[in-house]
Amino acid sequence: MDKNQLALRAKCGLIFSPGAPINRYELFAGRVESIRKVVNAVTSRGRHVIMYGQRGVGKTSLASIFKDIFHEMEGLRIFKINCAETDGFHDVWRNAFREIPVIVEGGLDDLKQLGKSSIEYRLDQLFHDEAITPSDIRRIVQTICQDDFEVVLIFDEFDRLAEEERALFADTIKDLSDNSVNTTVVLVGVARDVIELLQEHESIKRCVVQVSLEPMDWNELKSILTKAMAQLYLTMDDAAIDLIVFLSQGYPFYTHLLGQEATYCAIDDNRKEVTLKDVGNGIKSALGSMPETESAEYHAATISQRENSLNSAVLLACALAKVDQRGYFSSADLRAPMKVITGKSYQIPQYAKHLKSFSEDESRGPVLHKTGATRRIRYGFANPLLRPYVILKGIAEKMIGGDLTEWITVVKPETGKGQLPLFT
């Protein structure tokens, strides 16, 4: 491999980012409407943001690029704080105040020796070991944020806090909004809806912009690839793009991972075009780069003492089944993919016990979530990121036969949400 190839490989590693959030706007793609909502909230005094969605939809990346978007706005400072399970309300705000470099009167040299920010020092002086309240936070922030200094505080992984700690944030946001403090609070967390993330949201409904991040649609995922290729001065053929977008199932993590591995293959072969073959060759290395979570879940779900167990085949059929808008499928939806995978026709009673095990057996996860009444039961992956992983495993282990283009029915982008119904 020559020097130019190594340099291009390094650049590819920076542009595709499966292992870390995107933090530069020029590397970000999609989410235009969500970005508009947050920008409008930040530039409107008294407005705050609650951003929520499933794991892997790109919440942290979206939160991370706002510092880059607003960096030229004079007097606006953006700080991102990560929440931990062990944090209380007081801990989270102390971490926030550590980030804000505001100088109070006197004692600056002493503060540097103590290793504390001035506002953290002020917090210590005012409250010592007493419990801090939302109104205390409002008074401190009100002191910091005058007309020429506005702060945006992004609290990421907000869902990790205990419910009672999260409830205090609702009171804080209401107090900040009622007093028109020049500060925007952005809460970011994993949740199916805003109630799950912040049950006390009703009291602040009028002053909060709700941003729900769904799995990305076809065009958004495609734009990640085309934008990356343009910056690398490479091209990717349509079949390769279609395959990566399909395999991603709406999750940008997989688009970045598969796009990166496929591009590495083309670079190593000293070619300027990424092809369908590169995607196929990159799948195994992509699986090896996956977080342990999905690998462990897959292993627990499919492990069996029996040599001819159908566990892997049924789970793959679940991953390939046609789903509704919520990502759920019925047991009948598995008939067609089971025939493609095994070459045999299976009726529902022959794999019903597997669905029961996947959704009820704690030793297997459970990997599926079951909803609905008898005869109308539907299933969905408990961890949505596991679904693409199962499909990748099926390809890598040759459980799906034939050329990749033969079993993927490409539908137009308007069909929606990056999910292709393979079997109709």
Report on this structure.
With 424 residues, the chain is α/β, with parallel strands linked by helices. 49% of the residues lie in helices and 11% in strands. The protein has helices spanning 3-15, 32-42, 59-64, 66-69, 89-99, 108-114, 118-127, 134-144, 163-178, 194-197, 218-232, 238-248, 252-268, 276-288, 292-302, 311-320, 335-342, 348-360, 386-396, 404-407, and strands at residues 48-53, 76-82, 150-156, 183-190, 208-213, 235-236, 273-274, 368-371, 378-381. The chain has a 5-stranded parallel beta sheet with strand order 2-3-4-1-5, sandwiched between helices. A two-stranded parallel sheet has the order 6-7. Strands 8-9 form a two-stranded antiparallel ribbon. Helix 16 (311-320) crosses helix 17 (335-342). The protein is globular, with a radius of gyration of 25 Å.
User: Helix count?
Assistant: 20
Name the shape in a single word. globular
Helicity range of the residues? 40-55%
Calculate the terminal CA-CA distance, rounded to whole Å.
46 Å
Helix- and strand-based class? Answer: alpha/beta
Integer-rounded radius of gyration: 25 Å
Tag the structure with descriptive keywords.
11% strand; 5-stranded parallel β-sheet; disordered C terminus; 424 residues; 9 strands; alpha/beta; two-stranded parallel sheet
